[in-house]
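User: I'm preparing a small set of examples for a lab meeting where we compare how different chains pack in three dimensions. I only have the primary sequence for this one, and I'd like the structure in token form so I can line it up with the others. Please keep the answer compact; I'll paste it straight into my notes.
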Amino acid sequence: MINLQFQYNQVYGFLSEEDIQFMQDEVDINHSLLVEKAGKGNEYLGWIDLPVKTEDSLLDEMEADARSLREKAEIIVVIGTGGSLLGARAVIGALETLFSSFYATKNNPAIVFAGHNISQDYHAQLLSLLDRKDYAVIVVSKSGTTTEPAIAFRLIKNHIEKKYDPAEAASRIIAITGTKGSLKSLAEKNGYKTYTIPDDVNGRFSVLSPAGLFPIAAAGFDIRSLLEGAVEMRKVCIETSSLTDNPAASYAAIRSSLYRMGNQIEILIAYEPQLHHFTEWWKQLFAESEGKAQEGLFPAGGNFTCDLHSLGQYILEGQRILFETVVHVSKTSNSLIIPLDEADSDGLNYLAGKTLHDINSMAALVTSLAHTDSDVPNMDVIIPAIDERSLGELIYFFEFSCALSGYLMGINPFNQPGVDAYKNNLFAMLGKPGFENETELIRARMSDI
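Assistant: Understood. Below is the structure token output for the 449-residue chain.
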């Protein structure tokens, strides 16, 4: 049984229940294509079954290796970019305390990230930190050739092999990669422990594979509970295409309907700062999946109430081209009560006795009312708490709805030709062997600019 709730009563001013139910036949067809693995990009549908096909023996092995890294390291560097990084970072960022890096020790290491940018200062400062700390490395890349993580791993590999003897350095590196490729070959040559990303799972849908599970375990979190939440959500998503009973199908249908009505932007809103990196994962999931053939919603993120003092102005009074999906958390881990101040010099005694969560929840309610009154549709996704099980449900909910939404738009949600174009242009301009023709073409174009 799932705990996640999807509510859409605040779209009724824009879509009627009849409008929504009118999507049922179209959803039925595309749901069948998805679950029967007969639609576009079906060679990358392995993510559908990851929650139920991950064996206990693999979980045992990952948990043991994760404990070993935690015992060795004050810092664990996770190297990756895009889907090889964002899923793990989303879950770790949600579950760790916001100031966890200040308490890092062996057995409780800080998790830091590299390879998601090519900033010289970022990586120089990271290497300077690693000079002074015991550390371990998790490198995640299905191919091993993506420029950003490949550069970062070369830098850190060089550093760790100078800091420790070769055998010790190798014991501190875990490679999570595909069944073949340059990282796989390098790991075999150097004796790194490896875990495999299945061939039929692409990056942005890989968080429930070792690409996400191992870094999450290394951060000290319960990957079994994460998978249990995903298993329960998968059951609902697979068994029915009913817009009444399948929340992911309902979400996909409504966002697709709003898109067809001219809403071009979806903003995912969170009122808890821990969900910032979850929003970043969601943005990549939907942007790379739907942004094809000049189609697709533009996914943006908002951290409220902070962004109410910036984005809030545009949402209220800018173009009517967007809608919001708000992630609510029913119960927080802590309770803070506003104290009474006899002088009431700040004029806040009217809040005395209320918890910050009460105030935050009220802010979410009144903001939603203000935005819908200003013709901005709102939908709500509610999880009971920020914990592993709830995040497992939330991840699978968005993965399934993303795939179904893509099919409803008539596109292949599982390729990313735009990203490949960027990669190939970068390879050409950096002089990678095999891209000589592309290099000349780009240089000729640049000479005309």
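A couple of notes for your slides: The chain has a mean pLDDT of 94. The CA atoms of residues 117 and 148 lie 6 Å apart.

User: Perfect, thanks.
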